[in-house]
From TrEMBL:
Residues 9-77 form the HTH gntR-type domain. GO terms for molecular function: DNA binding; DNA-binding transcription factor activity. It holds the Pfam family GntR. PANTHER family: GNTR-FAMILY TRANSCRIPTIONAL REGULATOR, HTH-TYPE TRANSCRIPTIONAL REPRESSOR YTRA. It comes from Emergencia timonensis. This is GntR family transcriptional regulator. It comes from the Bacteria. Coiled coil: none annotated. Keywords: DNA-binding, Transcription, Transcription regulation. CDD domains: WHTH_GntR.
Amino acid sequence: MDKLLNENLPIYMQIMDKIRAAIVSGELAAGAKVASVRELAEDFGVNPNTMQRALAELEREGLLISERTTGRFVTTDTAIIDQVRKEAAEKIVSEFLQKMKGLGFSKEQIEEFFREIDMSDGFGEAM
């Protein structure tokens, strides 16, 4: 996972975002065991207390499940994962639309922009 760089967002929230992204992308599969707090803290270069806070919040969201004797696991509830994936996609689209509007594009021009992109491979290349 990439290093944390956003100085305007608390570190534990950046960690949550990275782990959340790994889960919704399938990098961390449903049911997968998550590394220990200490291992993750070392990987991210943060204090174990910071990592514990991030993981506890992800548990509260339902993305992680803690089993007392065996550690933490990614939830197997795919509905939760799908909902988080949808929310992440909505956030990306919303940010994109705001940036396009900031560049002076109208709704119609944004729609035309997408019609012009070659989507044949599913990931169209702009310009």
